[in-house]
Amino acid sequence: MPFWINIIVALISFLISAIAGFFLIPYLKKLHFGQTILEIGPAWHKSKEGTPIMGGFMFILGTLIGTLIGFCLLKSFSKTIELPDFSKSQKLLYGVLFALSCSLIGFIDDYIKAIKKRNLGLRSKQKLILQFFFGSLYLLALYYSGDTSTTIYFPFFGNVDFGLFYYPLMLLFMTFLVNAVNLTDGVDGLCGSVTAIAALSMLMVCVSLGEYEQSVFSMALAGGCVGFLVWNLHPAKVFMGDTGSMFLGGAFVSIGMASRQHLVLVLVGIIFVIEALSVVLQVISFKTTGKRIFKMSPIHHHFEMCKWSEYKIVIVFSAITLVAGIIAVAAVSSGGVISVG
After folding, report:
1. What are the residue ranges spanned by the domains of the chain?
2. Which pairs count as long-range contacts for 173-178, CB under 8 Å and 24+ apart, including other chains?
3. Which of 57, 130, 165, 188 has the CB geometry, 3.0–4.6 Å to 234, for a possible disulfide?
């Protein structure tokens, strides 16, 4: 696969996402779909009240169109050198549908927030039920596309076969990561920046494994995120909302699942994992001891309380993601962290 296809995909996704802001943001303002800030949040976030949410539609559109064009270019090129692998095409389709299903959950949540003018949205149980439902459908789709392996590769231990336990384990794993990405969206430009770098890392992983369909999806996702950052860097003119962050989570997870890079997802998405674990640890600590480990969770708010600027948080968290991505790409290229089907 010529790399110029991925370059074209990135440019298309970036331009569509960035240009969409000129039309979507005024429309969201007209609908009064603005963010409501909780009283328990950082006091300085009150200035963000009323900033339009659901801006995630910008990079969703860019990612979808970029992926479609990239896929068509890939298939046109592959016909000249090899027979197409329909199972990989199916996995790409199922991954896109899974990301959109996650986005649908986020949209329902955002819509409730916009109409009710409160930050509660869907209840946790309602979200989990929907996530388990769509996650189960995605795993079932992967199975019928030929991905029937129940093994996961662990360094120093080799392949571990989980048998039937693989599916509930993966359902919990996927749900955790999707929600982890969602939790990372709390500082201007943070989720978009971290996801863009994570997507570029997954791009290199997929290219090295010959998962070219997933590499196209990864590049489109990265381009869409960068286009969105034109409007979302501090001070943000629009928020992605759960509509966007849930899509990012679903897309990120599906790329790793389709390429069977379970552990790479954890490494590349280390910031997502840390964000989610900070919430878990905070809740456990407060309920068991009455004390908080962090000044506020997720952990990016802790650093805000420590007087870190939003720019500093984005730069540091992005740098950590970049380092983790480099390690992941190096490990996969050397055959060190590959989940064998």
Report:
1. 4-333
2. 173/262, 174/135, 174/138, 174/139, 174/253, 174/257, 175/128, 175/131, 175/132, 175/135, 176/276, 177/249, 177/252, 177/253, 177/265, 177/269, 177/272, 177/273, 178/102, 178/131, 178/246, 178/249, 178/250, 178/253
3. 188
